[in-house]
Design brief:
This protein is α+β, with helices and mostly antiparallel strands and 408 residues long. Among the domains are: 38 residues; 70 residues, no CATH class; 153 residues, no CATH class. The chain is 28% helix and 25% strand. It has a five-stranded antiparallel beta sheet with strand order 1-2-3-9-10. A four-stranded antiparallel beta sheet has the order 11-12-13-16, with no helix packed on it. A three-stranded antiparallel beta sheet has the order 6-8-7. A hairpin with a 5-residue loop joins strand 2 and strand 3. The longest helix is centred in the N-terminal third of the chain and has 38 residues. It is globular. One of its GO terms (molecular function) is scavenger receptor activity.
Length: 408
C-alpha cells in the first residue's frame, strides 16, 4: 500500500510537472509557431490566398455634402451644407503580377480595386439622387490658372462656356453616380483656344480627370481607383522575421516619394519616407505595440497611428489605434515636418509660415490640383476653416479615423 501510494504520488508529481511544461513552455511555443505559420506569406497557403484576393468584398461608404444655398453663396453668403449618405459600394480587392524574390523574403505585386454599387444597403438612397456640389474641376482649373499667369486666367474666363458647358455658378447639379465614378463631362467638342486650353489640362495628368477617346474629358472622385493599379509594391513576406510581415520595402521601386518639399531644416525625408504596411494587413504579436505606421498611396504619405485602448469587433478582442497628431494637427517647423507645408493653393488661408492651420493637409503636390484633406465634418480643424461653412457637425464617434487590430 505504501509503495502504491508512493508510485501514485510520483505519477502525480510527474503529471503536475508535465502539465506545467506543457502550459508554460510547449503550448505557448506551439501557438507562437502556429501564428507565424498563419501570417507569413507563403505561396499555396490559406493566408496567401486571402492575401491574393479578399474572400468577400468590403463595404465602401461615401457621404456627400449637398449645398443648399448655392445662389446665396454667389452673393457672398456662407455655404450651408447637408450631409447625404451613405452611398454604399462593394469593394473587391485583388493582387496581380505576383512574383517572389529568390529567397522568398519579399513579394512584388500590383493591386486593383473594383467598386460596385450596393443598391440594397444604400436604400432609400440611389446613385441617381440629385445633388448640388462644388464644381470642383472648374474651380480647380481656375485656381491653377490664377496661380500661373493673369493671361492664363483671362483666357480661361473667356472660354469658360465652351470648356465647361455654360455653367451658371461655381456649383454643379449632378448625381452620385456621375460625381463619384462615371464622371462629369467637360471639354466636349471644343475648338480653337478652348481646345488648346483643354490640351494643357490634359498635360497635367491629374488623377481625377480622364481623357476619353473623342478627346473630351471627365472629372470624377474615384474612377481613377476603379480597376486600375496604384503602383508596384514590394513587401516583406515574414519568412525570415515574422515581425516584418507585410511591411513595405519599396513602392514603384523606391522607398522615398518626391511629392513633398524640403523642410526649413533642408530635408524632406520626414514627409517622403515610405514605411509601414498598406493598412490591409499587419505583422503578428501586436500586443503592447504603442505605435504603427501605414503608407497610403491615395494621399502620397505615411501616417502614424497610436494605441488608445482595447476594443472588439463582433466579439473578437482588438487593439484600437487612431491617427497621431502629426497627421493633421501638429504640422510645421516646430514639429520638424513643415515639408508638408507646400503652400501651393492660391489665396488659401495659411499661417505666416505658409502652413495650413490645424486639422488640414495640403495635397496639391499629390493630386497636382488644389486639394485639401480634413477629417469628416472638419473635425479638429481650426476655426479659420470651420467658421467659413454652416452644417458641420463633428462627432468623434463617427468621424475619427481608427484601426482595430487583433493583437496576437
Amino acid at each position: 500500500m505504501v509503495q502504491c501510494t508512493l508510485v501514485l504520488a510520483g505519477i502525480g508529481v510527474f503529471m503536475a510537472v508535465g502539465g506545467a511544461l506543457l502550459g508554460w513552455v510547449v503550448f505557448p511555443g506551439a501557438v507562437h509557431d502556429k501564428i507565424i505559420e498563419n501570417t507569413e506569406l507563403r505561396q499555396g497557403t490559406p493566408q496567401f490566398k486571402r492575401f491574393e484576393a479578399l474572400p468577400q468584398p468590403l463595404d465602401f461608404k461615401v457621404f456627400i455634402f449637398n449645398v443648399t444655398n448655392p445662389y446665396e453663396v454667389q452673393m457672398g453668403k456662407r455655404p450651408r451644407v447637408v450631409e447625404v449618405g451613405p452611398y454604399i459600394y462593394f469593394q473587391y480587392r485583388q493582387k496581380d503580377n505576383i512574383r517572389f524574390s529568390r529567397d522568398r523574403s519579399k513579394v512584388h505585386f500590383s493591386q486593383q480595386q473594383l467598386y460596385v454599387f450596393d443598391a440594397e444597403s444604400s436604400y432609400p438612397l440611389t446613385e441617381n439622387d440629385p445633388l448640388m456640389v462644388l464644381n470642383m474641376h472648374m474651380n480647380s482649373i481656375l485656381q491653377i490658372a490664377e496661380d500661373e499667369t493673369y493671361d492664363s486666367l483671362r483666357l480661361i474666363n473667356v472660354e469658360l462656356n465652351r470648356i465647361f458647358g455654360r455653367p451658371d455658378s461655381m456649383f454643379l447639379r449632378t448625381t452620385p453616380k456621375e460625381f463619384l465614378f462615371d464622371g462629369v463631362p467637360f471639354c466636349v467638342n471644343v475648338i480653337g483656344i478652348a481646345k488648346a486650353i483643354c490640351k494643357e489640362i490634359e498635360k497635367r495628368n491629374t488623377k481625377t480627370i480622364r481623357v476619353l477617346p473623342d478627346g473630351s474629358m471627365k472629372f470624377s472622385f474615384f474612377n481613377h481607383k476603379n480597376m486600375t493599379e496604384d503602383g508596384i509594391y514590394t513587401i516583406n513576406t515574414g519568412v525570415k522575421n515574422a515581425l516584418e510581415t507585410q511591411m513595405i520595402e519599396f513602392w514603384n521601386g523606391k522607398n522615398m516619394l518626391d511629392k513633398w518639399s524640403n523642410s526649413s531644416r533642408g530635408s524632406s525625408m520626414t514627409c517622403n519616407k515610405i514605411e509601414g504596411t498598406d493598412g490591409s494587413g499587419y505583422p503578428p504579436f501586436r500586443e503592447g505595440v504603442q505605435r504603427m505606421t501605414i503608407f497610403s498611396s491615395d494621399i502620397c504619405r505615411t501616417v502614424d497611428i497610436k494605441y488608445v485602448g482595447s476594443s472588439s469587433y463582433e466579439g473578437i478582442p482588438a487593439a484600437r489605434y487612431v491617427t497621431d497628431d502629426n497627421f493633421l494637427n501638429k504640422i510645421g517647423p516646430e514639429h520638424n515636418n513643415d515639408c508638408y507645408c507646400v503652400n501651393r493653393i492660391p489665396k488659401a488661408i495659411v499661417k505666416a509660415n505658409g502652413c495650413l492651420y490645424e486639422g488640414a493637409l495640403d495635397l496639391s503636390t499629390c493630386f497636382d490640383a488644389p486639394v485639401v484633406l480634413t477629417l469628416p465634418h472638419m473635425m479638429g480643424a481650426a476655426e479659420e476653416y470651420t467658421s467659413l461653412i454652416d452644417g458641420m457637425h463633428p462627432n468623434p464617434e463617427k468621424h475619427q479615423i481608427f484601426v482595430d487590430v487583433e493583437p496576437v
